[in-house]
Each structure stands twice: as C-alpha cells, then as structure tokens.
Design a protein that fits this description.
Pfam families: Ala_racemase_N (PF01168). By secondary structure, this protein is an alpha/beta fold. It is built from nine helices and eight strands. It binds pyridoxal-5'-phosphate.
Length: 217
C-alpha cells in the first residue's frame, strides 16, 4: 500500500469527518520490519513511529534518531516494569499504561527524571482476558489514580477484539475520554483507521498497510 496512499486516505477521512487537515497523527508501526523499509519511510519524511518491544526499539532507534532529526517514538506494546528505565530513555510517548503497579513505578521514575513521556491509558474495551488494559468499569478510577500521582495523561488507547465491529469500541473509548476530560484517542490500525478517524481518533497506529506484512519467522 505505502505511505503516500495512507496519507491520502487519512486526509480523505479527515475531510469526510469534518476535521481539519493534519488533525490526526499517523504513527507508523515499524515493529519487526526490515530496516530498509523503515529507512525508506523515514526518507519520505515520516517522523512518528510506534514500536512494541523495548529491546528491539533500543537496537534500532538511537542510530535513526542521529540520522533523522525530529523522530517522535511511541511505545505501543505491553510494558514490563523491569524495562521501564530503558523505555523512558527511548520513548516520547507510552500508549500502554495499563495497571496500577506500572503507574506507581512510572510516577517515581518520572519524578526522579523531572520529565515524562506523553501517556495514554490502555483500556481493554472488549474485556478480553488475554489482552492488557484497564477494564472500562475501572477506567475512571484508574485515571483519577494516575492524576493523583501527577502523571501527565494525554488520552486513552484501545485495541478492539479482532472478530468484532470496532466502532462500538471506538465509541466507548471516546465516551470514557470525554467524561474524564482527556482529548487524546489512540485507536485505529491498518484495517480500520478510517472508521477510527470518523469516531474521533487523534492518533492512529498503522503498520502493515504502510510497510507490508510483518515476517515474524
Ligand atoms: C502491531 C500493532 C499495530 C499495527 O497493526 P497493523 O494491523 O499492522 O496496522 C497497531 N497497534 C498495536 C498495539 C500493535 O501492536
């Protein structure tokens, strides 16, 4: 598909939703992709990227940050507490704040540094047992707890169940964000980003539609 096509489709979806051009931030999800593909997308001017694995990101991005000014790196995978320090060295945003123990450790680390990445709370809108995230019923309480810890929340993130219409999940996320005064909505992937934009996404996370299929082999 490629970056140009995706940019055009984002612009069309923004216009259709009556939103300003550039309202939606495209996060190019580069996990597991061959370096040459990522470098081509960097060369085409894309600067916002998403990664799922701290160790993998640590091996790739310091050099690319040197070579390409203005990289904005987002953590979108589950974050283990023992990788927190490394993650804070690497990432400008974390979309997977998903449990009280992580919030507490993050608060201590952020205070010691005097700086925090932008933070999104991951909500498990489908209440799927195998998936990370705060359950919708617990979201208001968890958001309040994070604010009590002085964590700078910018929004919410969700990954809808694969076998369901994502739109009700996008709407639920938007509702939780609205009643908690949060503007950021990280939702929408290769298969559904246009619907996410229609439902108010501010950040879409698109991997395979830009880079091609991932080869985990
Ligand atoms: C891998 C991943 C994406 C990108 O998925 P595509 O279907 O390739 O666009 C988006 N969000 C999260 C959380 C992911 O893990």
């Amino acid at each position: 598909m490629g970056l140009d096509q995706i940019r055009k489709r984002i612009a069309a979806a923004e216009a259709l939703a009556g939103r300003a051009p550039g309202d939606v931030t495209l996060i190019a999800v580069s996990k597991v992709q061959p370096p040459a593909r990522v470098e081509a997308v960097l060369a085409a001017g894309q600067r916002v990227f998403g990664e799922n694995y701290v160790q993998e990101a640590a091996g790739k991005w310091p050099a690319w940050r040197e070579a390409f000014a203005g990289v904005d790196l987002h953590m979108i995978g589950p974050l283990q507490s023992n990788k927190l320090k490394l993650a804070l060295d690497l990432f400008d945003a974390i979309h997977t704040l998903d449990r009280p123990s992580l919030a507490q450790k993050l608060a201590r680390a952020v205070q010691a540094r005097g700086a925090s990445p932008q933070l999104f709370v991951q909500v498990n809108t489908g209440a799927e047992p195998q998936k990370a995230g705060i359950l919708p019923d617990d979201a208001d309480g968890f958001i309040a707890e994070c604010r009590g810890l002085d964590l700078p929340l910018v929004g919410l993130m969700c990954i809808p169940p694969e076998d369901q219409d994502p739109v009700p999940h996008f709407r639920e996320l938007r509702g939780i964000a609205a009643r908690n005064g949060l503007r950021g909505l990280s939702m929408g992937m290769s298969a559904d980003f246009e619907r996410a934009i229609a439902e108010g996404a501010t950040h879409i996370r698109v991997g395979s539609a830009i880079f091609g299929a991932r080869d985990y082999g």
